Amino acid sequence: MTDGQVRVLLAEDQGMVREALAALLSLEGDLDVVAQVSRGDAVAAAVVEHGIDVAVLDIEMPGMTGIDACAEIRRVRPQTKVVIATTFGRPGYLRRAMESGADAFLVKDAPAAELAEAIRRVLRGEKVIDPTLAAAALSEGANPLTGRERDVLAAAADGSVNADIAARLHLSEGTVRNYLSMAIQKTAARNRAEAVRVAREKGWL
Amino acid sequence: MTDGQVRVLLAEDQGMVREALAALLSLEGDLDVVAQVSRGDAVAAAVVEHGIDVAVLDIEMPGMTGIDACAEIRRVRPQTKVVIATTFGRPGYLRRAMESGADAFLVKDAPAAELAEAIRRVLRGEKVIDPTLAAAALSEGANPLTGRERDVLAAAADGSVNADIAARLHLSEGTVRNYLSMAIQKTAARNRAEAVRVAREKGWL
DNA sequence: GTGCACCCGTGACATCCGTCATGCGGACGT
DNA sequence: ACGTCCGCATGACGGATGTCACGGGTGCAC
């Protein structure tokens, strides 16, 4: 590879999308996609092995989320810049991505040119965030759910009945009801299904 | 454009992915991406306007699904070939895509090379389908839900209570309960949330 | 024209769910 | 040492949900 080229890693589980993004970035003369992975838990090792300058991470991936992978990169190779590119522009995702030390947060709705642009800007030490999303994330405040409330709500997400949830979390059925009741109130929902939907949208799960 | 070039349309709502796929296909010498749209309801007009040879359609798009757009293409310009490329390899999607007259069905998990390959094969008159998915779609059988059962289940999907669903569909609350009960039995679920999940997985919604 | 499947409705019943009050123990901050 | 928050639990209550039996209407196929 030529000297001065930016060494980029792409992490994205959908092969077609990943390779397409690689093709796109390769059209930029100064960028070199030297590694591609399809699993979150393969990111950190690849970053170290290839001496990556910028890692572009999807959030939803098998093995580990892009957000957790970002935190891992921060531990093993702090000088690597991280760009999170995701389908869902949920404020909760943005907040958690920033807490994990991400340098940029993009939604895939955006034009493709923004990706290359974001890579160059994070290399200059800038942070890149959609202003609309930033405002939404700030106005939303922190996650009001306690740890256990989150557990129970997450366990209820697939349509399990109380008895199942209780068994899975080693709780009594009444306790499950109580936690769910709390979660429903805090999400301003009318039942567990709505609570799950709201919590997901806000990134509280 | 050079004579003999294949005129391709890309329909995909995520700008970054759409433009990346365009970049990828442009690397193939014989393909020419002459049109890009981000909404399902813009597909048919673009196909006619640009005299498209092959339309590559995502399923989940604003305005109209790729499956419905495929049916529209069949009406307005039958000689155009249609490739459905989707994130979710749900058997129900495959079945409905085929019923709408699609020539190929790809999941975005697949390697990028398959897309160009599929485009060339449908131009030769072949059908392109993942054998695993085809088997799953066949073994699953047809959608057992009646029209109204689907409506009610879909209306319940966001966590609405019975009264809401009844009002939205102009039904009595008891009728909503009955339809939901049927849907729950047919999906072998224990409550509406599980029924929604199962129906989604099987592509019955 | 006689089934049959679908649509829509009612009423009754058992169960599940959501809420509230209340209790106890542990962790944490002041 | 005290208050506060969290985790976990129980019991009781009303309302929502799921099931069943039953009815009537429509349209379609044999």
Helix content of chain A: 40-55%
Name the CATH class of the largest domain in chain A. Alpha Beta
Rounded to the nearest angstrom, the distance between the terminal CA atoms of chain A is 42 Å
Q: Might you state the CATH topology name of the largest domain in chain A?
A: Rossmann fold
CATH superfamily membership of the largest domain in chain A: Response regulator
Can you summarize the main beta sheet of chain A? 6 strands, parallel
Number of separate structural domains of chain A: 2
Average residue-wise pLDDT of chain A? 90
Describe this structure in words.
The structure is a homodimer of 205-residue chains. Chain A has helices spanning 15-26, 43-50, 66-76, 91-99, 113-123, 131-140, 147-156, 162-169, 173-186, 192-201, and strands at 6-11, 31-37, 54-57, 81-86, 104-107, 128-129. The first copy, chain A, has 205 residues and is of the alpha/beta class. Chain A folds into 2 domains: 6-138, Rossmann fold (3-Layer(aba) Sandwich); 147-201, Orthogonal Bundle (Arc Repressor Mutant, subunit A), CATH 1.10.10. The longest helix of chain A has 14 residues, at 173-186. The mean pLDDT of chain A is 90. Chain B binds a DNA duplex (30 and 30 nucleotides) through residues 146-148, 161-163, 171-172, 174-175, 177-181, 184-185, 190-192.
SSE map:
The structure is a homodimer of 205-residue chains.
Chain A (H helix, E strand, L loop, with lengths): L5 E6 L3 H12 L4 E7 L5 H8 L3 E4 L8 H11 L4 E6 L4 H9 L4 E4 L5 H11 L4 E2 L1 H10 L6 H10 L5 H8 L3 H14 L5 H10 L4
Parallel strand pairs in A: 1-2, 1-3, 3-4, 4-5, 5-6
The structure holds a DNA duplex (30 and 30 nucleotides).
